[in-house]
Amino acid sequence: MACSYGVVYPLWSFADDRGAALERIIDETGIDHVSIPLVGGIVDEFRVEPSGGPHYFFSSGGWHYEFDRKRYESLALKPRAADWLGKRRVLADFLEFAAKKRVSTAFALDVRLGIWTRSEPVRPPQRNFLDEPVEGKGPCQLHADMLDLTQGVLTELAAFGPKFLTVAPWPIDETDGLTYYRMSQVAPIVTHGLAACFCSSCRALAARADRSLDLSVTIEMLRDELSRFARGERTATDRSDVIAKNLAEYQRLRVEAYQSICTAMHQRCAPTQTRVAVEEIGSAVATARLCGSDVPDLEIHEYEGEDAETTLRALQFVGARGWAFSIHVGNGTPGEAAPLVSFVSRLAEFSPVSIDFVDVDCAPRRVVGWIKQAMRFARRSESL
């Protein structure tokens, strides 16, 4: 199957000039599709040569399209409209525009960041073994309310018939640097326990999968270990081993449940293909499969010099066939077309399902010409 070439183009830039700049890009490059980020977190970007809008654009994030509110009336957790959107029906305008230009559409979404405002209490929060909300870790991706919202968004967007949907991965039991630093001041086994979410949904998923796992005992042991650490007492090795074994099993059960849920969600989107955005080559396939897809979409931020060579060698090493690639070509791009042209041609050798050019709305207009050249040479190499 031939590679599909496209650009990632946000609706806020499309709305600035009613698609005039995007139309020039389509006409000049001959791209196959346009991918639109529709749900996500904070947007903070600088556009070198904006078309109809300001150079600087900021949004607190959310839903960057006019979602159907009736779809979500019965849900406990509801979408929040992005602050720039107002009452405009920009997605409808874009879909009409894409149909006229005869380009396919694709959508990208990160529901976790879209619902996480950071200015309000997190809903639904992850909870530690002390039954306290952990605000700094964001919403619990396995909470029933979060899963209902995610399914609702996927169903709504799949109904538009996009070429593909790209979803952001949700790591299980990840801690950010600051939170982890604070937690690491306690005993290692307690730190291990603090990394896990013990909200009612997570515990219920694990209990349904393995009724023999007694989480109440593990939680009591963790609380006791925290008290012992506060008193300056050491943890017994055998006790620590038991807690670690139970925590590992608890995580395994939740990971398996999450994978099963995500796979079912993506199957309901058929025939629309779903992909998972990844940044690490070594874990790309595993991350995509954990999130219910067989197609990783690798974010690439450097396409010149040793960084580009390292990326290509790593892709060769893991046998990255049939992946999608998203190359950032924003305002930090080098001054000539050759590096991008060469890099894209070499990427094409991996038989990707698609190659997207990201941040085109932020880049100097000359970059559009580079994309045209890169596509022309890559397509030529594909036909050989």
Structure description:
The chain has helices spanning 11-17, 20-29, 90-101, 111-115, 144-158, 177-183, 188-194, 200-209, 215-230, 237-267, 284-290, 305-318, 338-347, 366-383, and strands at 4-8, 33-40, 43-46, 56-59, 62-63, 104-109, 164-167, 273-278, 296-300, 324-328, 354-358. By secondary structure, the chain is of the alpha/beta class. An 8-stranded parallel barrel has the order 1-2-6-7-8-9-10-11. Strands 3-4 form a two-stranded antiparallel sheet. α13 links the parallel β10 and β11. The mean pLDDT is 90.
* Strand elements, count: 11
Total helix count? Answer: 14
Summed over residues and divided by their number, the pLDDT gives a mean of 90
Order of helices and strands: EHHEEEEHEHHEHHHHHEHEHEHEH
Amount of helix: 40-55%
**Order of adjacent strands in the largest pleated sheet:** 1-2-6-7-8-9-10-11
Structural class, by secondary structure, is: alpha/beta
Indicate the radius of gyration in whole angstroms. 23 Å
Q: What low-confidence regions span 5 or more consecutive residues with pLDDT below 50? A: none
Q: How large a portion of the residues is in β-strands, by DSSP E?
A: 5-15%
Distance separating the two termini: 14 Å
